[in-house]
Amino acid sequence: MNRFAPMLAAVAVLAGPAGAEVTSNDQGFVVQNSAVAAAPPTAVWAALVQPSRYWNPEHSFSGNAANLSIESRAGGCFCEALPNGGSVEHMRVVMVQPGQLLRLSGALGPLQSEGLAGGLTWQLEAVEGGTRISQTYVVGGNMRFERASFLPIVDGVLREQLQRLAALFPRR
Fold first, then answer.
1. For the chain, what are the domain ranges?
2. Where are the beta strands (DSSP E) in 38-142?
3. pTM summary value
4. Is residue 16 pLDDT above 80, yes or no?
5. Is 135 in contact with 120 (CB distance < 8 Å)?
6. How does pLDDT run across 122-137, given as a tens digit for each residue?
């Protein structure tokens, strides 16, 4: 995971509390973000389950967002193809309500090597002018790093993916 160190340092500098609700205790942390996309929930859903359309390739193991995929069914994989036949399971799909909710279970990126469990919920809600996309990541368990210093990094990475998804549907 040394490959992520420079990226995490850069995100730590850029990540701030704007637009986020971040809470922490001795057992874990919660990161919540939301954005509005200027499209109906069905269109946002179609993009959400294609992470290659919005996921920043800098936050992948292969450096190529085209290698990311989500099987949008319970038990499906949010996976990444790696060179030479390798692969990464970023998260496991645990709940699917097309056009409304996608819930995944797992620890993302550098959190994978820790004793953590996580749940990432993407919720879509029709609002005037488009769709409100709410993103909640709940993580608990043992980690070997200072939780408080890592929270802005996790928030920044997740918020960026949310903003990139919403940006696929610019206001006209």
1. 20-167
2. 68-70, 77-81, 87-97, 101-105, 115-127, 130-142
3. 0.87
4. no
5. yes
6. 999 999 999 999 999 9
**What are the strands of the beta sheet with 20-25, ordered from one edge?**
20-25, 28-37, 130-142, 115-127, 101-105, 87-97, 77-81, 68-70
β-bridge mates for residue 66, sequence order: none
User: In the numeric block, which tokens belong to residue 147?
Assistant: 């939780």
Question: Phi/psi zone of residue 158: left (φ > 0), alpha (ψ -120 to 50 degrees), beta?
Answer: alpha
Rounded to whole angstroms, how far apart are CA atoms 88 and 155? 21
120 CB-contact burial (10 Å; exposed 0-12 / middle 13-18 / buried 19+): buried
Q: Which CATH class is domain 20-167?
A: alpha beta
CA-wise closest residue to 132 among 18, 38, 32, 20 = 38
Contacts of 19 (CB under 8 A, 6+ apart): 33, 34, 35, 159
